[in-house]
Every structure is written in structure tokens, then in C-alpha cells.
Amino acid sequence: MKKDEPPFTFPKTLEEFEYAFNEYGQLRHIKTGELFVFNAREDLHRWNQKRYEALGEIITQYVYELLEKKCNMTKAILPVDATEDEPTSFIYLSPDAMSNPSKLLVLIQGSGVVRAGQWARRLIINQDLDSGTQIPFITRAMEEGYGVMVLNPNENYLEVEKPAMSSPLPSATEPSDEPAEKRERKDDKEGKKKREFYEKYRNPQKETETEQIPIRENGSSEEHVLYVWDHFVSKAAAKNIFIMAHSYGGLSFVELMNQREMQVKNRVCAVALTDSAHNIWLQETSKSTQDWMQQHCCNWVSSPEPLDTPLDPMLPDCPQVSAGTERHELTSWVSFNTIFRFFSEVLEAKEDEESLPPLPLPPWS
Fold it and tell me: Mean pLDDT over residues 212-234, rounded?
């Protein structure tokens, strides 16, 4: 029996979803106390996915609120010289992010749907706020006297609805690099998928067509990190800058080094990476950058080994140690304490070195 696909209209708040975060930061159903259920309706995968995404959007706003209310952070709009009618993004700054004379921590997340303040949406929904958000890192950093900047590398464009108009049919003469045979197979496959879908539902919902307007100079994670370095990090007062980057954030950091090598070397004390996606060969990183990374970076990677067990790096860049978990998205949370210890030890060593009296000049100078 064919059924109608329900409309893609979902609650706009956690309360309307009938979910709330309990005292342990876990998302639970208000009435049953149960965990979030993805398959709310059997046999309606697309609808369930849309519902999950709608909840994800609410959680993004919830985390922004926590950054503002719990962490006392404020938004800085990007680009800094944005006009009134262009799309913008933002980062979050602690009150002393630009003025703290001593220490600044810069947090860079991985790629995907996550926005400022999140490591992994799946962890926030299925586990808790501590493991899935950057809030424990921000709170601990503030307690230890750091200024904090929270980057937003996935907010790259404004999505707007396309005006309704009949879409022109693709021209038959349009050239294609694919062999005809392969194209036909692909068309068959697509056609079969569509047929199955239409056979399943009597009235499938039509998805809104959208177009993306890129945010100037912030159209990708790499562009965003470079932009924030140029307009914020490099202008901050802190004598000691620390960076923590997860997954694709590590690749964006290495790209920053490729673009601003001397500046980064002069300002950054240490870099903690968690399951970083960087690749010094594919990114054509200079030998001098690789040497610097060897001295100043550490990558906590997913591994069955106990936390902090040294591992053989595949490439000659930075030391790798186990994050104490085999789950990619958990690497930041599980290595939380050890990352702060790493930063403290690097800073202590630097300060010890700076406090040493200068070496006496040899008598023949």
C-alpha cells in the first residue's frame, strides 16, 4: 500500500521537539527520558534524515547561546568590512581575546555541518555536550588565563531559495568527458533510484531548490583560517599563541603555515591536532615548516593504544600519539587533559629558556 510522504515541517525549538539537555548535558526526551531516536518513522529514511537535520540546526543555535551566556563570548562579524547587503559569517571571542598579553587559544573544528563551538553533532545528540562541544576547552582555557577565539570554518555561504522558474533542459549537444556507456549506466541507476522512490510514496515531497552565495574571503575552511589569522590572531596582544585543530582543521592550519610561515613561527608556541586530516606532501609543505611542526606540534590520533602512547607517524611531520579512542569524533574530548598539559609544558620550557641569563661573550669577540 503506497503512502504519502509527510511534509518536511519540523519543530523550531527543543521544547517543541520534546527534548531537553539534562543536568549531565545529555539530550533526553522530556516525557520518556529516552535518548534521541533517529528512526522516528519506520520506512521513511529521507523524512527521518530531514528531522535529524532540523534538530541539528536547533542545536547549533543552542551552542551559540551557551558560548554567549555560559562562556561570556561575543560574535565578531566577517568580513570585518562587510557591507549591509552582503552575506556574513562570524567567529566568537572571549572578552580578552585581543587584549590578553600572555596567552591566546585558537580553536579550529573539522569540516561538515558543525558550526562554531562544536566538535561533532552526533556526539552532542547521542552522548553529551561535553564530548561534542568545545565548551570544556573554552572553560578550562579561561580558568588557566588564556584568551580564546572560536573559529567557524564551515560557515562559507548564504543559502537562498531559487526563484521558481522552469529549469531549462540540458542541451543534447553538451559535451561530456564520460564514455556514453558509462553515462547510460549512471542514468539507468539514477532512474531506478527515482522509480523506487516514487513507487514507495504516492506523493513525495518536493525539496526546495537553493543556491549558495559565498561569503567574501571565507568561502572555504582554508580561506576562513587565513582570514581570521590576518584580521584577528596576528593582531592579538598575546605573547604566546596556542592552536587546537581537529580533523580538517589541521589541514587548514597547515595551509595557513604554507601562506604565513614566518608569522606563524614567530607567534605560535604549540599546536595540538586531533586526528588531523593534513598531508604535508599533498599540501606541498616546505622542509622548514615540517621541521617546525616536528618541534611544536603533536597529533593525537584515533588508535586502540592507551592515551599518549607514541605512534609511528606515516610522514615526517609532527609527532603522533594515541588519543586513547578509535572513534575519530571523540579524539578531542578523550585527549582533553593531556592537551592542556602539553600546552603548559611547552610554555614552561619556553619561559625557562627566556629567563636564562645570556651566555657570556667569548674573550676574542
Answer: 97
Distance of alpha carbon 85 from alpha carbon 99, whole angstroms: 31
Instruction: Kindly report the pTM of this predicted structure.
Output: 0.87
Look at residue 194 in the predicted model and tell me its pLDDT: 55
- 304 close to 348: Cβ distance less than 8 angstroms: no
128 neighbors 26 (Cβ within 8 angstroms): yes
Give backbone dihedrals phi and psi of 178, rounded to 5 degrees, phi first. -80, 140
What is the radius of gyration, based on Cα positions, of the chain?
A: 24
Rounded to whole angstroms, the Cα distance separating 127 from 332 reads: 14
pLDDT (0 to 100) of residue 337: 98
Choose the catalytic residue: 247, 303, 322, 335: 247
Is 97 within 8 Å of 148 (Cβ atoms)? yes
How many residues are given for the chain? 365
Do β-strands 146-150 and 157-161 pair in parallel, antiparallel, or remain unpaired?
Answer: unpaired
CA distances from 62 to 14, 71, 116 (A): 9, 13, 11
Confidence check: pLDDT of 58 > 50: yes
Answer yes or no: are the C-beta atoms of 28 and 37 closer than 8 Å: no
Instruction: Please confirm, yes or no, whether 247 is among the known catalytic residues.
Output: yes
Q: What is the grid cell recorded at 11?
A: 519543530
Rounded Cα gap, residues 228 and 16, in angstroms:
36
Rounded CA separation 244/233 (Å)? 13
Chain-centre distance for alpha carbon 176: 35
d(CA 137, CA 55): 24
